[in-house]
Structures are given as structure tokens and as C-alpha cells.
Specification:
The protein is 37% helix and 22% strand. The longest helix has 21 residues, at 340-360. It is built from 15 helices and 18 strands. It folds into two domains: 10-245, Putative sugar-binding, N-terminal domain (Rossmann fold); 263-433, Four-carbon acid sugar kinase, nucleotide binding domain (Molybdenum Cofactor Biosythetic Enzyme, Chain A, 3-Layer(aba) Sandwich), CATH 3.40.980. Bound molecules: adenosine-5'-triphosphate and ligand LCNOYBR7. The site of the ligand O=C(O)[C@@H](O)C(=O)CO has 12 residues, from helix 1. It is an enzyme of class 2 (transferase). Belongs to the four-carbon acid sugar kinase family.
Length: 434
């Protein structure tokens, strides 16, 4: 008997791994059966899902490489038959003056065909996680992006909150703005504004959003846009379009994972404000924690072995934390000695080897903090796909993976974006799996 597969409707390209699970989480919660792949699959086997998220690690690599990988993902998704492409970046618009958000957006726009190909939006808003956009300015909680902890990010310091200006500095296309007063007026007003902007020669519109209601309005106005570029928030407004057309069944959130087994560990390479608070909370509770010193690694000490030998005898007693997380001044001092990219890579390499060793030692519930760190860890675990499970905090679900480093066993993994999660996130994650 021929098996009937549903053709995927939405194809997503995420520029980091935590961002990919964040997006997949929002799609699953909005009723789309979602599959997340690690990198671009090497075969063209049809995937039975409503949405596919291809997770790349392209946020901070050279722009030309990010473009090449994103175009490859785009071609693969198109071959799967998706109707709409979604380029997912960070809710804090993490990028450098060289990109990669602008260059990748332009390359994807060039690759589009059909009506609407010359126009797209930019919208990192995610109100549930306190990322809002007003008059083109991105707020993190109560402060402008440029006054938030993001100004000290180790790889992508964000020092300008004006998204029109930031995006314009990364793209040849003219950037315009759809203000919140228009967004709150509803989908017709937004569509009219899109047309007016296009008539003025605008190719990319930053769209304000301060609430989920704004995102739902925007979602309707995006129904026919072939390429959407956004954080994960905009995704909550898209499924309604397919539901209205009767091509998306009402799925109860498909977030059931197999039962969790094995030891528990946290590996943290994020230096964001929220992660620093989470590490502090863990340490202040007297729970086992091992600090990775990047300078020791650089001087040739086998820190991976040290960390694994430290962890081995205590894994049976409960979760352990291994972290390189540090406050901005300490990170700066390390970067001054090692170089920014070199320090980042060194720490990612160390933490991913530690994560691999922990899984080989029997860890089957693993919390990873930090987008770049998560990318390195998931690659080290040799994983092809992630199944999305229940949400721990907005933007962060548990997932389950099949890892080749433990002979195909199931490992429960959560990839926590740097600035997501409450201060007790690590403890809460494990209690949720029980
Ligand atoms: N002590 C340290 N000194 C220098 N660099 C560090 C240190 N600890 C971590 N790093 C590097 O800082 C970078 C942190 O980026 P990562 O994406 O993992 O976290 P994040 O930016 O907080 O998360 P997200 O991208 O999800 O917001 C990584 O490249 C990591 O290797
Ligand atoms: O959008 C966010 O903030 C996250 O999904 C992310 O991309 C962090 O790396």
C-alpha cells in the first residue's frame, strides 16, 4: 500500500541551533507538526511534517559561507515542496556589521521566484520573551537593545537598537518601516502599507510588534509572502493562514517524547545575562559545578579529561554543571589574550568534547546553554534530527535525539538560548522530565 505523506507547508532556515528549536517550539505549539534537521539533509527523502526547520550554525561564520549554506537549505526545502520560506535569526538581531542577516536575506530574496519576490520583512519581536519593536527600535525587556546585556555579547555585540539603521547597513536594498499603529489596525492596513513601501522602492520592511495580537495581525498579512525573515515570534501567526485554507489539520500540540532515562548534566558556554544568573543560582545552591578555564585549555591542559574525571563519580547522585560562562569583564580579558574568534572556538570545542564524553559516560538528559555552544555540542553528538517536546520556558523545549556517539540511544537534549529561561532554569528542566 502506498503511504500518503503530507507535503510540508513551511520551510525554515535557522541561523543557530537554539534558535531552530525555539522556532520549532512555537510552530508545534501553534499546531504544526514540525521536524528539525541538523544541517541540510544529504538525501531528498520526503519528510512527513507540516513544517521543517533546517538548523544551521551560520550566525557568525563568514557571510559568503552563511549565504552558501542558506541557499543550499533553501534549495532542499523547495525540493520538499514547501510553500513559504522562513529565515529565522535571533530575537536580539545578533549580527556583526558584516552580517549575516542582511547578506543572507538578500541572497534568499534573489533566489525567490513568483509574485512578491522583491519584498520581505524583518521582525525579531518575541513579546512572550520581552522582545518588542516600537518605531523600529528593538527593546529587550524595558531597555533598548543597545542598553541590554547584548552590548557585551562575546561574538555579536549589539550597540544600535534602531533596526532600520542596522538592517540598512547590511543590505543594498532600501529598508522601510511598518509602525505599530498600522500593525494594530489589522492585516488590511499592514498589506496596504507593504504596497505603499514597495511603491517607494523599499525591498525590506522592519515591522513593529509589541504583543501577540500584533503578531497574529502580521501573520495574516504575510500569507502570500514567499520569504519571511524574523525571530521565532512571527511564527505564531502563520499557521492560521493554512488552517483558514483548510490545508492544515488541527493538531493537538505534538510534543510527546519517549520516557527519559540516564544521568543528567548541564553544559554551559553562554555568557549572556540570563545564563550567568542561572549558573550563579546553581552554584549558590551548592550543586556540583566545574568551571572550564579557557586559558588553561589554551596552555595545553587536558581540561576535557579533567572535567570528565570530575563528573564521573558524581553522575549517579544527580545533575552536574560544567560551564565556561563568565561575566563580561572576564570574557574580555580572555578575548584580549586569545582573540575573540579563537576564544569562542576553543571554548566551543572543549565544551562539545565534554558533552560527548558525558553522553558516552551515560548522560541521557543534557541541558546545553548558548546558541554557538549548542551548535558545537549537537554536531559532536552526531545527530541528524530533533523531535520537539514540551516547553520548559518560552522559546525552550525539551527535544529527543538519536545520537551516534552512544550507539543510537535516545538522548533528551534542551538547547537554551543565552538570554532565555528563569534563574532556576537548569533545575526546572530536569524536574519537568520526571
Ligand atoms: N569564558 C569565556 N571566555 C571567552 N569566550 C567564552 C567564554 N565562555 C564562553 N565563551 C564563548 O562565547 C560564545 C557564547 O556564545 P553562545 O552562542 O554559545 O551563547 P549566547 O550568545 O549566550 O547564546 P545565544 O546565541 O543563544 O543567545 C561561544 O563562542 C563560547 O565559546
Ligand atoms: O531568538 C532568540 O532569541 C533565540 O532563538 C536565539 O536565536 C538565540 O540564539
Amino acid at each position: 500500500m502506498t503511504q500518503h505523506l503530507t507535503k510540508p507547508l513551511l520551510g525554515c532556515i535557522a541561523d543557530d541551533f537554539t534558535g531552530a528549536t525555539d522556532l520549532a517550539n512555537n510552530l508545534v505549539r501553534a499546531g504544526m507538526r514540525t521536524v528539525q534537521t541538523i544541517g541540510v539533509p544529504t538525501d531528498n527523502q520526503p519528510i512527513d511534517a507540516d513544517a521543517i526547520v533546517v538548523a544551521l550554525k551560520s550566525r557568525t561564520i563568514p557571510a559568503q559561507d552563511a549565504i552558501a549554506q542558506s541557499l543550499q537549505a533553501h534549495a532542499w526545502l523547495k525540493a520538499q515542496g514547501v510553500e513559504q520560506i522562513y529565515f529565522k535569526y535571533c530575537s536580539t538581531f545578533d549580527s556583526t556589521p558584516q552580517g549575516n542577516i542582511g547578506p543572507v536575506t538578500e541572497a534568499l530574496m534573489d533566489a525567490m521566484d513568483g509574485p512578491g519576490k522583491g519584498f520581505t520583512i524583518v521582525c525579531p519581536a518575541f513579546p512572550e520573551n520581552n522582545r518588542t519593536i516600537f518605531k523600529g527600535h528593538l527593546f529587550v525587556g524595558d531597555v533598548l537593545l543597545s542598553d541590554s546585556g547584548m552590548r557585551n555579547h562575546p561574538l555579536t555585540p549589539m550597540t544600535d537598537a534602531n533596526l532600520v539603521r542596522v538592517m540598512q547597513s547590511q543590505t543594498q536594498r532600501k529598508v522601510g518601516l511598518v509602525e505599530q499603529s498600522c500593525v494594530s489596525a489589522g492585516p488590511d492596513a499592514i498589506r496596504a502599507r507593504f504596497q505603499a513601501l514597495q511603491a517607494e522602492g523599499v525591498g525590506v520592511a522592519v515591522v513593529d510588534a509589541i504583543s501577540n495580537q500584533d503578531l497574529m495581525h502580521m501573520g495574516q498579512a504575510l500569507a502570500d509572502m514567499p520569504l519571511v525573515t524574523a525571530g521565532s515570534g512571527v511564527a505564531i501567526g502563520l499557521p492560521q493562514n493554512w488552517k483558514a485554507r483548510g490545508v492544515l489539520a488541527a493538531n493537538a500540540a505534538a510534543d510527546t517524547l519517549p520516557a527519559a532515562t540516564g544521568y543528567q548534566a548541564v553544559v554551559s558556554g553562554s555568557c549572556s545575562v540570563a545564563t550567568n544568573a542561572q549558573v550563579l543560582h546553581w552554584r549558590q545552591a551548592g550543586k556540583p559545578a566545574f568551571a572550564v578555564d579557557p586559558l588553561a585549555v589554551a596552555s595545553g591542559t587536558d581540561v576535557v579529561q579533567q572535567a570528565l574525571s570530575w563528573a564521573a563519580p558524581q553522575l549517579k547522585d544527580g545533575p552536574v554543571l560544567i560551564y565556561a560562562t563568565a561575566e563580561p569583564a572576564a570574557v574580555k580579558a580572555i578575548q584580549n589574550q586569545l582573540g575573540v574568534a579563537q576564544a569562542g572556538e576553543l571554548v566551543e570545542h572543549t565544551l562539545s568534547n565534554i558533552a560527548k564524553g558525558l553522553v558516552q559516560a551515560g548522560v541521557r538528559q543534557l541541558v546545553v546553554a548558548g546558541g554557538e555552544t549548542s551548535g558545537a555540542v549537537v554536531q559532536a553528538l552526531d545527530v541528524e534530527r530533533m523531535v520537539i517536546g514540551p516547553q520548559i520556558d518560552p522559546g525552550v523545549p525539551w527535544t529527543s535525539v538519536t545520537s551516534k556517539v552512544c550507539h543510537g540511544d535516545t538522548v533528551h537534549v534542551t538547547l537554551k538560548s543565552g538570554n532565555f529561561g528563569t534563574h532556576d532554569f537548569f533545575e526546572k528542566s530536569f524536574s519537568l522530565l520526571k
